[in-house]
Amino acid sequence: MDGDWKIGFSMKLVNVKVALSKTDSDNVNRTLELRYLLADTIEERGLGQIENEGIGEHFIEVSFITEKENDLINQLEGLLLSLGFTERNEIQTFQYP
Question: Which of 1, 25, 62, 64 is surrounded by the fewest CB atoms within 10 Å?
């Protein structure tokens, strides 16, 4: 994203939380690698601009800002599957700001 957000568009904050296998979550380097992969892919596919990234016990979390509305959840679910995230995933959207 180029940061040229336009005032007046309906912006959303999207939070994606991905549960990790015990094997992945026990390996800090692997956990970070997966988080970076998710964040980079969201931006590469033009879905939004990353706002925040984090890790917790057995999960990674990425939040981003977007003006996309049509089919966003389906695109994210497809993205998660394509990256091999088959564990429990949670996607939440909020009005922004």
Answer: 1
Contacts of 70 (CB under 8 A, 6+ apart): none
* Sign of the four-CA dihedral 73, 62, 4, 7: positive
Residue 56 corresponds to which amino acid?
A: G
Cβ(40)–Cβ(83) under 8 Å? no
59-66 vs 49-56, strand pairing mode: antiparallel
Chain mean pLDDT for the chain: 89
* Separate counts of helices (H) and strands (E) for the chain: 3, 4
DSSP code, position 5:
P
- The answer to whether 38 and 16 have CB atoms below 8 angstroms apart is yes
pLDDT digits (tens, 9 = 90+) for 22-40: 999 999 999 999 999 999 9
Buried b (16+ CB within 10 A) or exposed e, 86-96: eeeeeeeeeeb
Q: How far apart are the first and last CA of the chain?
A: 18
